[in-house]
Write a structure and sequence with these properties.
alpha/beta, Rossmann fold, 2 domains, 5-stranded parallel sheet, 10 helices, globular
Length: about 250
């Protein structure tokens, strides 16, 4: 059975070209003209991935994704913003709403196809993985180190050392952590700090030398510990409980 992709864009020509390309590639495509229509189709068809414009009538892409992320069943659903609004502020807002990737218009269909395949492959691995449980960071990273060899273990060790130095340097300016806040591992704290800067999961993985799957596990753990349904709620929780140094 083909994977289902929901495509929301008010421009008919753009929507049609994406639909034709994805159907030829082998996907089942559900079209929508705006965010309001797309939201109902998400509930009805439960797609495997969403491609959405931002500027649409009735409900824009930001609000559409925000509402999708309030549903626990869809909080990890891959989302791609396909839009002309690609300023730094717009990208940060989109990542905080919960998008996984940005593609600027005009775009190449082949690039869109590559991004879709990458996200679907990654989330398929996450779906097959057992639910992560909070563990000391040294225990959690040991299986990954063994699986990926000594080279990755060395990179992780170097990164931890650099991060620890950075955290010590900034400790004087960081507000006291709320005692009611949940305890975070060092790696979860690093992921949270980068997430609140507006970085995508892919960018966080590149910055910390982690696999995308590992980043997703840490983000899921942060959601669970903070009882958050999406990135916006997670950032708000972190700000309110002084879990990040910039606030």
């Amino acid at each position: 059975m083909p994977l289902t992709i929901l495509v929301a864009d008010d421009d008919f020509a753009t929507r049609l070209s994406i639909i034709d390309y994805l159907e030829i590639t082998g996907y089942s495509v559900i079209p929508a003209e705006n965010g309001k229509e797309a939201l109902g189709l998400v509930e009805e068809f439960q797609p495997h991935l969403i491609v959405t414009d931002i500027t649409m009538p009735e409900m824009d892409g930001y609000e559409f994704v925000r509402r999708v992320r309030t549903r626990p069943a869809f909080r990890l659903l891959p989302v791609i913003f396909l839009t002309e609004r690609t300023s730094t502020e717009e990208r940060i807002r989109g990542y905080q709403m919960g998008c996984d990737n940005y593609l600027a218009k005009p775009f190449e269909l082949s690039e869109l196809g590559a991004v879709i395949r990458s996200l679907l492959d990654r989330y398929a691995l996450i779906a097959q993985a057992p639910s992560p449980s909070p563990k000391p960071e040294s225990t959690a990273t040991e299986p990954a180190s063994r699986a990926n060899g000594n080279a990755e273990a060395s990179i992780l060790t170097q990164q931890k050392s650099k991060t620890a130095d950075s955290l010590r340097d900034s400790s004087a300016s960081r507000p006291s952590i709320d005692r009611n806040a949940p305890p975070l591992t060092q790696r979860e704290q690093e992921v949270l700090d980068l997430l609140t800067e507006g970085l995508s999961n892919i960018q966080i993985g590149d910055r910390l030398h982690l696999s995308h799957r590992t980043v997703e596990k840490h983000v899921s753990s942060l959601f669970r510990k903070t009882l958050s349904n999406n990135r916006a709620e997670l950032v708000r929780f972190a700000m309110e409980h002084h879990l990040i140094g910039n606030w």
